[in-house]
Specification:
Layout lengths: L40 E8 L18 H9 L1 E3 L2 E2 L5 H10 L28 H7 L3 E7 L42 E5 L11 E2 L2 E2 L5 E3 L11 E3 L8 H19 L5 E10 L16 H23 L6 E7 L28 H4 E2 L1 E4 L8 E3 L3 E2 L3 H9 L15 H4 L11 E4 L5 E5 L2 E4 L19 E4 L15 H17 L8
Helix pairs in contact: 4-5
Length: 503
């Protein structure tokens, strides 16, 4: 893709703690007369494996206190039918940043590992590069999980294999293809999920400390794989560390006083395994260690909201909080808690428990407070929404599966936001949702739950409007709907896009 873009600013911003920075708040962030930007700051926070039924504002029977998520529901808009682009994390993150379904790439199933080659194509537009070109200061703090472009000591590049694929990594050299090559001015985070090696922190394009130690793996809810780790790497302290970096970015941006808007992409490492709530959060929920970790995740959101409050940015900031897929947890009967609120399936599955997710948005004066949007949206929609927001026309080779939800955010819905939405499981099973109908190309979950072996129909068709549990398969009863949705899904796959060209 040939596109003229400004050279990315590689400034390194010191992400300090929130303490001691508040006195600098009024010096920046566009708060002085004549310095306010017409474009909002954008804070996009994505939890890792938080289910639809975990936040109290989505599940009145939740046993987990989530006061900050609940606050956003009161002060903003709740999307009741939001979906991740996949039922697992890497493909969803690709879709968030590129506006394109990840099954259009080499990743036809599964996820990347800590040493995997980059998934985002070198010249592909991302949300960060689009906003950077519009004058935004862009940062990512958290879990990347899209490949980093590691250099090796022998010239043999690591592949898409698992844990021990990185024995020949040259940690003294910068990574060649991470966030700062895809539109982000600043990055601090971990290469992949917190249960995947290598256990290191990366700042911009450099490993902060090489993994000269090795740690033993753990099992159960605290699961993580054994392998190379930086000296003193502490899984339990990763979430607090990432939170300090995210808050520190806001503080440093405001201290700089440029008046430019900022985009903070904050992909959390929680409540994904290892489930390790800190001592301050242990026992705080009514749903065991997992519930405590979700409560701590909500607490991190509270830290970011406090920074926005402290710098008087509430009116000027669009905050979006969501999850990358459904919870991996099955019903927690011992705590009377349903992480996915009774939806069928869980993370990895093509059923709604795998990809229907909580989604909240707040932007006072633009997003109507205390409202609920019933329309189907997808996390791939961020790119087109940001383009709409900034008055940018997307080129034909960008955001192929992204639809703007700006009208929905403004409460001005006059019909469906999207023509249809494609779902994808960890094993590569497809489904397509249009209105009330959901067609699944195959039997079972396409993921870890299994099931469907006794169903004689070759596929599944559900009326989501009357059967949210996906319990009554109408595949044989409605061949007309099956044929129509099959043709639409085939068209989406063959033409390379699902979103309209003229946007």
């Amino acid at each position: 893709m040939s596109e003229s873009r400004p050279q990315l600013d590689r400034r390194t911003f010191i992400a300090g703690t929130a303490a001691g920075a508040g006195c600098l708040a009024l010096a920046g962030c566009g708060l002085l007369p004549g310095r306010r930007s017409r474009l909002p700051n954008i804070v996009y926070i994505i939890a890792d494996d938080m289910g639809y039924g975990d936040p109290a504002c989505f599940n009145a029977s939740s046993k987990i206190p989530t006061p900050n998520l609940d606050r956003l529901a009161v002060e903003g808009m709740r999307f009741a039918d939001a979906h991740s682009g996949s039922a697992v994390c890497t493909p969803t993150r690709y879709g968030i940043l590129t506006g394109r379904y990840a099954w259009r790439t080499r990743l036809q199933s599964g996820v990347l590992w800590g040493y995997s080659p980059p998934l985002i194509e070198p010249d592909r537009m991302t949300v960060a590069s689009l906003l950077h070109a519009q004058g935004y200061h862009t940062a990512c703090a958290g879990k990347w999980h899209l490949g980093l472009g590691w250099h090796t000591t022998d010239g043999v590049k690591p592949g898409d294999g698992a844990d021990e694929a990185g024995k020949n990594i040259d940690y003294s050299r910068p990574v060649s293809d991470g966030p700062t090559t895809h539109g982000f001015d600043y990055f601090y985070g971990i290469p992949a999920s917190l249960d995947m090696v290598p256990y290191v922190y990366v700042e911009n394009d450099r490993v902060e400390a090489p993994p000269t130690d090795r740690i033993e793996g753990r099992g159960g809810l605290a699961f993580y794989r054994g392998g190379p780790a930086a000296p003193g790497f502490d899984h339990e302290q990763t979430l607090p560390r990432l939170a300090r970096k995210a808050v520190g970015f806001i503080d440093e941006h405001c201290a700089a006083g440029t008046g430019a808007p900022f985009f903070l992409y904050f992909p959390l490492s929680s409540p994904h395994t290892p489930v390790l709530p800190t001592a301050a959060w242990a026992g705080r929920s009514g749903a065991g260690p997992y519930g405590d970790f979700v409560a701590q995740t909500d607490g991190v959101l509270g830290e970011v909201l406090a920074a926005i409050d402290r710098h008087q940015l509430v009116q000027d900031t669009l905050v979006i909080v969501t999850s990358d897929n459904g919870s991996t947890m099955t019903p927690m009967h011992e705590y009377d808690h349903l992480p996915n609120d009774g939806l069928r399936g869980r993370k990895s599955d093509v059923w709604d428990g795998g990809h229907r997710i909580p989604f909240l948005a707040r932007w006072p004066g633009t997003v109507p407070a205390g409202t609920t949007c019933p329309e189907t949206i997808c996390l791939t929609d961020l790119l087109a929404t940001c383009a709409d927001l900034t008055g940018t026309r997307l080129p034909e080779d960008a955001g192929e599966d992204s639809w703007s939800i700006l009208s929905a955010l403004r409460g001005r819905i006059r019909g469906p936001v999207r023509e249809a939405t494609v779902h994808h499981s960890i094993e590569g099973m497809f489904a397509i949702r249009q209105g009330r109908w959901k067609l699944i190309e195959g039997r079972g979950s396409g993921g870890w739950t299994g099931g469907g072996e006794d169903d004689e129909a070759p596929g599944q068709l559900y009326d989501i409007e009357t059967d949210l549990d996906e319990s009554t398969n109408l595949y044989r009863e409605r061949p007309d709907v099956v044929a129509e949705l099959t043709a639409l899904l085939d068209r989406y796959r063959s033409q390379g896009r699902s979103a309209p060209l003229s946007r």
